[in-house]
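#dry-run=false #mode=assembly
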Amino acid sequence: MTAATAPVTAPRSWRVPSAAGPARLLRVELRRSPMLWLLPVLAAAFYVSTYHPAMDNPPFWNIRSGMLQSHTMLVFAPLLAGVGAWVGSRDGRRGLADLVGATAVPRWAGQLATWAAATIWAEALYLGCVGVLYGVTADEGPWGGPLWWPVAVGAATVAASCAVGFAAGELLPGRFTAALAALVVFLALAGGAFAIQDDATYAQIWPLNVQGPFPSDSYGIFYPYLPDLALAQVMFLAGLAAAALGALGWPAGAGGRWLRGAAAAVTVAGLAAAGTGTALAGTARVEANGMVIPALHNAASDRPTPYTPVCGRGAVPVCLQPAYRADLPEVTAALGPLLSQLAGLPGAPVRVTQVAVTSVHPAPSNGIAFGPPVIRGRPAVLDLPLSGLTLPGEGNTPAASFISSLRQQYGPVIVNELVGLPADTVTIGMNPVVGNDDHAAQFAVAQALERGLNGPSLIRSIPPGARAGGPVAGASTRGASPSSAQLQAAVNRFAALPEGARHAWLATHLTALRAGRVTLSEIP
Amino acid sequence: MTAAGVGRPVPELTPAQAGGSGGSGRAGLAGRAGLAGSAGLRLVRLHAASRRALTCLLVLVTCAAALRTALHWLPHTGVLSRQIPLTIEAGAAAVIGATTRSPFGEPERATGRWLPWLRLALPVALTGGAVGALAAGSASAHLAYGSIGLLRDVAGFTGLALLAAAVLGGALSWIGPIAYLGVTLPGLTGHWATPWVWPARPPHDRGAAICATLVFAAGVAVITLRGARDSTRE
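#status=ok
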């Protein structure tokens, strides 16, 4: 048989369905993707950057989930962008671009298959790492369930990093492309950190940003995890990936007219999605339970998660959210001595209940300020927030350190609130509110009670009216302001009283003290 | 270098210079020395060209400009004041690592008598160039940890890039410094004490300096003796 006599059309069994070409190409690419060689490096990087630090923290789902987005992606994104660039520049480096451009499968489809293979391996590794971390965490028996939105953002970051790197490699093949792609992605992440710290509104879209300024242990327990910011981030990252990949389909050799039109449409849609995500992130605001984007917010997320608190025993029981069950002994040990001194006093808390937060205020440089414990209701209940505190076991924090820290941080606040002083009077030093004899008595009582908790201490803040040399004439409506010696003497007197006598005096005089009707000299 | 240039005769190769015919013995010796010198220079130039050293230098200058720009905006303290300069230093090291890749492979290994010396000289010279460029870029600006920290970090990152080049190949050598950077950045806030995380240590920390120097020395030694790993799939 000669060529002239050969049948013009191929036998029916040889015809390949149009979709089978890219699928077969994908199978080939999956077998020979360089990403396979990077998987051990990525796994090691995950262990060092995420797994090991995660295990240094108590088994809270929110802490460990947040690390899967922030810690893991800080390492994965630049590496994946570099390998993506390496994969993308393969044909260009080998001088095969013209050759593969003439194959049966359109060039763009071939490029997408190559990118998809690399991305599938990267996603498989990332999800495997997530599975390991979540499996180990679940084995430790934490309350609640895993958070999936940080994982979704991480998966989108993986795809986007591969896509951006791949596009860079396709467009600028060379030996430095992969290194520079990794460097640029690293710089972009660092620049995002800089922008978010500079309070740039749109910087909330930064892929390593889990819940804005909220510490990782302050969300997703008392209320459902707010997915608003994560939705915007996924939108942005998916758009970025689509725009990068779509741009590869523009050149004339990428495929037919329809295919190039589709590539252009994908690019435009990607840019629109990325822009929309960024714009939405710009509207994010700090609320009590996380970052809220009004256009994406679901009111159902504002309903508290039901739970049965775990309570300790004592004169004033301490009740915690079950996720913090392991910390109940430490919290009780920190506040118990103070609470037992205050038990039965008018206005003193009869129970301590853990709350997510008492108040939240955004602070400069992407910071956040949580309100102190608050005594409210009748009978009085102490609302105790633990968000933002370094819990026992967090970063190898010993229990004794947590107890001491909680006692020093919240003890004075509780005492001050009980005696009618502003919450931060003792802890922040000079306070203009403490400006006359009335507050001086409250101050002295608070100091004496605090001394019972934390041991002997010098007066750290002196009411502005009080002077070491003696009273300041005309400083008070009730006569001369007390000197620091007088104040110290009152503190010493009251602190030296037996606990029963102190308690009895407070039971009788606390209401008057709170109202400012007790002077320093009336303190026993 | 292109294939067209390979077969061209060396312009310096003339019979008189080679001392092959005529002339006194001393003149021939001088001629041979001159020839060896010019041939050596040509060898160095060709080696540098085959490793894209000039492009690397241009990228290093770009890194220096990026560092200068970043330092203008960065705060003088805090994690970011270290993070972005470190990233640029790691990028410079990654680019140096990429120059170790040989486009010739086995033939070059088989015939290049001076190859180990060239493999030693190029990364060391480029590292010096990187330190110089980045130091110039940070001059008159506040660089956290100063020039000593810069020298230590660039050397350490470059050592990692060279070691990665020996294991993964020159083209993938960037994985070493970039992965190390990603792993150690959290250490900037964590106050890690181990000297092996030298970017997180103060500039005058002797242990950190020793570790970075050891890594650099190991990288240079491995690249000098073995060269970057060749891949037939390049």
